[in-house]
Amino acid sequence: MFESAELGHRLSKAEYETIEPKLRTDLLDVQFDLFEHKDFAVVILINGIDGAGRGETVNLLNEWMDPRHIEVHAFDRPTGEEGDRPPMWRFWRALPPKGKIGVLFGNWYVDPIGERAGGRLKKAPLDQRLSELNRFEAMLAAEGVLLVKFWFHLSRAGQKKRLKALESSPATRWRVQQADWDFYEQYDRYREVAEHVLRRTSTGVAPWVIVDGTDPQYRAVQVGRTLLERLQRRIEYVRKGFRPRQTAAPLVAAPDERNLLNALVLSQPMDKKAYDKALEKLQGRLALALRSDAFARRSLVLVFEGMDAAGKGGAIRRITEALDTRQYQVIPIAAPTDEEAAQPYLWRFWRRLPQRGKVAIFDRSWYGRVLVERVEGFCSEADWMRAYAEINDFEDQLVSAGAVVVKFWLSVSQDEQLARFKARESETFKRYKITPDDWRNREKWPLYEPAVCDMIDRTSTSNALWTLVEADNKYFARVKILRTLVNKLEAVLE
Amino acid sequence: MFESAELGHRLSKAEYETIEPKLRTDLLDVQFDLFEHKDFAVVILINGIDGAGRGETVNLLNEWMDPRHIEVHAFDRPTGEEGDRPPMWRFWRALPPKGKIGVLFGNWYVDPIGERAGGRLKKAPLDQRLSELNRFEAMLAAEGVLLVKFWFHLSRAGQKKRLKALESSPATRWRVQQADWDFYEQYDRYREVAEHVLRRTSTGVAPWVIVDGTDPQYRAVQVGRTLLERLQRRIEYVRKGFRPRQTAAPLVAAPDERNLLNALVLSQPMDKKAYDKALEKLQGRLALALRSDAFARRSLVLVFEGMDAAGKGGAIRRITEALDTRQYQVIPIAAPTDEEAAQPYLWRFWRRLPQRGKVAIFDRSWYGRVLVERVEGFCSEADWMRAYAEINDFEDQLVSAGAVVVKFWLSVSQDEQLARFKARESETFKRYKITPDDWRNREKWPLYEPAVCDMIDRTSTSNALWTLVEADNKYFARVKILRTLVNKLEAVLE
Question: Which residue among B95, B127, B339 sits closest to A343, beta carbon to beta carbon?
């Protein structure tokens, strides 16, 4: 969930000054348009980690937008009047009418997250509350309210740095109190709870937007652009006569163009000798783990995704070499059969789930929904938007039933892919591996990149993490995959 | 939830024999059409009370439909193969492909209801499971699956009668075991759990259809007609190019035309003397209850609905006479103001919620959404279909916050309404009370009747019951209202 936000994004002052004036003008234009037509109301939720710039963002919005049509509501402990009524009453009071924007700072997510992180709320009652909130937000969306939910994030190190910085200056020292340091101590717990809450409440009608809160310029531009795009898209939909509920909010690209994929250093060193040695050791550990008594009560689901020629097949063979043929199945996923196409898209994966004690290795997987189907337009935006939550639910069910789920994205550079394509064409026994489709897909690289980043951000969960594999060097990639897998298995089976 | 199903519906053998042949032919036609075009898959869920005819209905469907395109799956305890995989795996295996119908007998609702009724599952984990099921069904619906969920119901007395009848014949005696009687002992608990589960999982995309299971002929026709109508409507939507998710299933009229309203005896005896005496007593008890210390921590929300001239105003005055002016507010609901129309429809009720220790009396209410707005087409079918769950959520929040919610439907006959309209026209000081709108609404009576019955079935919950008031005699109606209110208050405040 927080993968992209922890990359360390920033925008220089100069970059910011180029972007800001135009962004402000555009925001004002769209705000005026909204107010004039009164098609719908906008509710902006501001949540996140202490010190990640929530307050500053609210101030900025006030400064950027026409203050007559934007209203900020900050909620603290309920007042007497509020406490005398159902908990949601104070939020209903603050809802903006059609044509206006309401910013809710300290909203309906604060208590569930805080109480759960503080240990005052158990898992089941938390989920109960979250499903109430989902129903509430679905109702608002069905009533035509545009919900934009921002989560301002800081990594653990980022939060510490921020507190230190505030303390070091006499002008801001007063802003840091013992409570802030106490909160910092709980960071990991809070992050874990926040991840769960965000995942459960990131719905097709109201997805969360996670903002890296480290750099003020970056943060401001990401918020401004997201807001602008959401408003423009909704207005477009409304004017074209679509019902608002039909719009699935787009996922927004990072203003600094830094993303999970381009942040990787794809060519990593490893020579044949080191590879052979590591491979032997890891395969031995893998065989041992899968033959253990503990594994007899579990199962293993492996997912391999990556661009063509990223080395999925080779990596899979290095795993299966260590296994008993009766224990595993490699399941290559291509276009669905007729029988599969007549069913919900997850059906063909459900039917291939391994029994206890077995291993299923998916060479491509259910993630096709948010990769090839999104990119090629085989399904609608609403369909792939809802798929993130559906896939998370699916993997949760696997994990609850005892499966270990390990997912790899093999990342190869465009140059390396080209070299491999050419090599394949010239080697007789590999020629079948290269088709016109591969060349066509290669041209869609720029469309796959955001799809992959969104996929990782929205489906890398504590239950089923994604591992990004730098795959220009096959030796390095295979060893990283085996090591990740073996470490995970040993930790789980311990 | 079970109000209509506990009315005691039946169809004679002769009636059944007139209806059946045509119904079977129509069902076969639509099944063939579905199979030929393969637009979508149909999943029929069969659930309900023991002895309410679930098995018989499954047999009947098999007999009526073309068996090549309908598949029945009965689930019992998970087999070894099933237990080795996530719990939902066995249901995924049984999903029908597009063009076919799957009947799931003993499906994903059996465990949550059984475990909760048996005390093995707490409230919060139950709700957690139900929201998982809602997400699962929403996903199926979004994938184009038509879900038809039947709940076969028997009243407590009905279940006893059925068991006795089986026992009395040597041919069926073997079918009744001690377990059945044990289950009967738990009837009330089971009914309460079932009500909660049905309410939580009756969604716009997959509402429950509750079938009175007492009479085999009635039951068969209701199931057959519901299925036919759902299939026809879905086919129509699909062929017209609407997305399947846009269809909200209609609520089906009872085949025997007996409903909650026409089952009432509207003119009940009560003379002025008895009325005066009862009124004085009840008003005294009401005043006492509302001045108690216990009430200072609660609030009271009263809802009055009914056709024009049903006597809502008069009944409300008999309540307010007993109250301190500072303690209550009467809130007449007419068309929304501009400010209200710019907000979600529940907003104008949230803003009028009473504080602790206070009383809010709504003369018409949020139920306008499923009454006038439905009948007049002021909102779409999808909008009023989702309103039932939204209203239940709203009232749950009121009750959780300590409010007592009491709802009255005042039922007046068409003749009595006419007499009152005429009387109003002739009395100078009441002439303002009759407008052309009233005459117009009167003509829509046949449209209001099903809307009222659906409303009561779908929003009469253990938290906030509806009381139907026979209102042709004003004295009787006012006393019934006051008595219901006072009894409820005294029970809660005790």
Answer: B95
| Assigned token pair, A204 | 């097709």
pLDDT value at residue A247:
37
Query: Could you read off the pLDDT of B70-88 as tens digits, one per residue?
Result: 999 998 888 888 888 888 9
Residues A309 and A433: their CA atoms lie apart, in Å, by 9
**Residues of A (84-113) whose Cβ lies below 8 Å from B:** 84-89, 92-93, 95, 97-99
Is some CB atom of chain B closer than 8 A to the CB atom of A324? Answer: no
Q: Do B390 and A140 touch (CB under 8 A)?
A: no
| Nearest one of A90, A231, A132 to B350, comparing CA atoms | A90
Q: Give the chain A residue nearest B40 (alpha carbons).
A: A342
Express each pLDDT in B16-72 by its tens digit: 999 999 999 999 999 999 999 988 999 999 999 888 899 999 999 989 998 888 999
Residue range B4-246 in CATH 3.40.50.300: yes
In the sheet with A70-74, reading across from the earlier edge strand, the strands are A70-74, A101-105, A42-48, A146-153, A208-212
Query: CA gyration radius for chain B?
Result: 24
Nearest CA in chain B to A39: B342
List, for residues A356-382, the tens digit of each pLDDT value.
Answer: 999 999 999 999 999 999 999 888 888
Distance (Å, whole) CA A100 – CA A96: 6
Q: Is the pLDDT of residue B314 over 70?
A: yes
Query: Residue A438: what pLDDT?
Result: 84
DSSP code per residue over A164-196: HHHHHSTTTGGG--HHHHHHHHTHHHHHHHHHH
- Provide the terminal-to-terminal Cα distance of chain B, rounded to the nearest Å: 27
Dump pLDDT digits (tens) for B397-429: 899 889 999 999 999 999 999 999 998 888 767
Domain coordinates in residue numbering, chain A = 4-246, 272-493
- Residue A151, CA atoms < 13 Å, CB-side half-sphere: 25
Residue ranges in B186-328 assigned as alpha helix (H): 187-201, 216-239, 272-290, 293-296, 312-320
DSSP state of A357: T
* Average pLDDT of chain A to the nearest whole number: 90
CB distance B135–A386 less than 8 Å? no
- Across all residues in chain B, what is the average pLDDT? 90
According to CATH, what is the number of the domain A272-493?
Answer: 3.40.50.300
Asked whether the domain spanning B272-493 has the same topology as the one spanning B4-246, the reply is yes
Low-confidence ranges of chain A (pLDDT < 50): 243-250
Name the nearest CA neighbour of A407 among A304, A300, A312, A263. Answer: A304
> How is residue A271 written in tokens?
């020579």
Are the Cβ atoms of B393 and A85 closer than 8 angstroms? no
Q: Which residues of B touch A355 (CB under 8 A)?
A: 81, 84-85
A12 touches chain B (CB under 8 A): no
Asked if A127 lies within 8 A of B128 by C-beta distance, the reply is: yes
